[in-house]
Amino acid sequence: MQDRTSDQEIGSQFDVIIIGAGISGMYQLYRLRKLGLTVRVFETGKDVGGTWYWNRYPGARFDSESYSYGYSFSKELLQEWEWKEHFSAQPETLRYLNYVADKFELRKDIVFNTRVKSANYEKVQNLWLVTSDKGHTSSARFLITAVGPISAPTLPNIEGLASYQGDAYHTGNWPHGPVDFRNKRVGIIGTGATGVQVIQEVAKTVGHLTVFQRSPNYCAPLVNSPIDESTQKKIKASYAEIFQKCSETHGGFLHKADPRSAFDVTSEERQAFYEKLYAEPGFGIWMGNFRDVLVDKRANDTMNEFMARKTRERVIDPEIAETLIPTDHGFGTRRIPMETNYYEVFNQDNVQLVDLNEEPIRSITPLGVLTEADEYEFDIIIYATGFDAVTGSFDKIEIRGEDGRRLKDKWSDGPKTYLGLQSAGFPNMLTLVGPHNAATFCNIPRCIEQNVDWVTDLILFMRDQNLVKVVASEAAEEEWTEHVLETAEKMLFSKVDSWFMGMNKNLPHKRKRRFLLYAGGSPAYRERCNEIAADNYRGFQLE
After folding, report:
1. Which of 149, 309, 251, 273 is nearest to 491 (CA)?
2. How many other C-beta atoms lie within 10 A of the C-beta of residue 262?
3. For the purposes of burial, counting CB atoms within 10 Å of the CB of 263, is it exposed (0-12), middle (13-18) or buried (19 or more)?
4. Is the pLDDT of residue 501 over 80?
5. Is 349 exposed, middle or buried (0-12, 13-18, 19+ CB in 10 A)?
6. For the purposes of burial, counting CB atoms within 10 Å of the CB of 340, is it exposed (0-12), middle (13-18) or buried (19 or more)?
7. What does 30-47 look like in DSSP terms, one character per residue?
8. What is the signed CA dihedral for 247, 249, 254, 257, rounded to 10 degrees?
């Protein structure tokens, strides 16, 4: 592994600077290098992988089918790589991304162990000046952010965090070495998608586990399994069809909404359909359900009742079962955690569930967690408390546009973007995964490939036309932002507090609903982007 850190390598001028060497940054580097452009990528971590480099916690794995997740740009790569499971675990996913980096020699243009501290647009020279945490400044015509939607971990807003004397870990910043839970007293705070994954894994070996739950979620079976040799051959022969199917679905997954209403069938047929979805692998139960389950409360309620019944069937203690059933939101209005024997964990004698609505946490103590009712002593505390989602990674960088205004200040009342790819006042800065573009609410690789290809085509167009500056107009930005919000209003999740809506109760600046995604679906988004490009990049000012 090459680690570029010298003054010569960092303090230089390039055609393009990319922030982040995760899935989107790696592919963007590959595409731009093919154009003969000089590109430099700055990456905080010690190696490639982005989310899959940092999120090493026990149980971390795909909730999209492995073969729908990998890159599609290289037929050779598709035939060389063999996914071991239908839903890949983090170690295999990271091996895959390292394989890609090796195959296409990407590391030679990546500076590792380097965090971008600031990015300032210099309008006289029409350059972005990018300064690292090491004090080096590089410049480029174009600045491309590939920082990922969930890459800024947040600790809980609880007193006494620093006082704890045991081992403490956040799932988004897990140690590189193994953590042994045998004979240990472990407390886990958080039961979102990450919390569910880590809970079911830790429970396999832990001495005693205490789960602190504020908001239960509707969790659905992952139904994972190894990929046998014959299935592997079928997958490799079907990649064209797999990616075509993904391109036609709302979220880029292999699951398409059923065209029927929940009320087009009898109650018996509806229950049979739900049972079928519950027994099938992956996000089908979320993305392949009746078309109105996510938009009509009556239809949604039928799914809520079904999921509550399944929880009661799987959890022995009726009181615990009820505690695990959500009452503050409907099915699918928050991200659906995919699980394997999650509910059965709470049937173990060495597992305790603490309902924080009944027993709030007062503080973290040197020995563990103090609630309103008791003090719990632990050897290990795990914080599965989520991220400053979507905008948090941008806020960590001092980004200033052509008038000196900070992006953080511009977005303080909610993001404003054009296509989720650019923000007015920030010329030549393009965002691959961020607020208001389809890649943030999607099977990420499927949507980032669209965004990377679009950005690459834009830069190529500008080069061919001898253009050096592109910036979204304020009118186009206003129109797109309004469209994003109008689209969200049709969905039930717009009425619920979640990271989709920019909510994080651990952060003072994220206690007001601000929609951060794009709910119109991947096909509609792609069509709009292509239409705008075909119309000489309508809504962008090109010079």
Report:
1. 251
2. 22
3. middle
4. no
5. exposed
6. middle
7. HHHHHTT--EEEE-SSSS
8. -170
Residues 317-358: tens digit of each pLDDT: 999 999 999 999 999 999 899 999 999 999 999 999 999 999
What is the number of alpha carbons within 13 Å of residue 418 lying toward its C-beta? 25
- Tens digits of per-residue pLDDT, 105-126? 999 999 999 999 999 999 999 9
What's CA 514's distance to the chain center, in Å?
Answer: 17
Cα–Cα separations (whole angstroms), residue 263 to 258, 272, 284, 310: 12, 13, 19, 21
Domains in the chain (CATH in brackets) are: 7-48+106-152+389-542 (3.50.50.60), 193-230+249-383 (no CATH)
C-beta of residue 76 within 8 angstroms of C-beta of residue 50? no
Containing 275, the helix (H) or strand (E) segment is: helix 267-279
Q: Which long-range contacts (CB under 8 A, 24 or more apart) does 171-178 make?
A: 171/55, 171/57, 171/60, 171/195, 171/198, 171/382, 171/383, 171/384, 172/54, 172/55, 172/57, 172/387, 173/54, 174/54, 174/55, 174/56, 174/57, 175/56, 176/56
What percentage of the chain's residues is helix, strand, coil (to nearest 5)? 35, 20, 45
Is the pLDDT at 431 greater than 50? The verdict is yes
Q: Which two tokens stand for residue 197?
A: 């994954």
Query: Which residues contact residue 244 at a Cβ distance below 8 angstroms, ignoring those fewer than 6 apart?
Result: none
Tallying the residues shown for the chain, one arrives at 543
Mean pLDDT value across residues 164-169: 98
Let me know: does 192 contact 506? Beta carbons within 8 Å: no
The token pair at 536 is: 């000489």
531 Cβ neighbours under 8 A, 6+ residues apart: none
Burial label, 448 (beta-carbon count in 10 A; 0-12, 13-18, 19+): buried
- DSSP assignments along 300-323, one per residue: HHHHHHHHHHHHHHH-SSHHHHHH
Chain position carrying tokens 């390039």: 14
pLDDT digits (tens, 9 = 90+) for 7-30: 444 568 999 999 999 999 999 999
Residue type, 322: E
Q: Are 431 and 421 in contact (CB under 8 A)?
A: yes
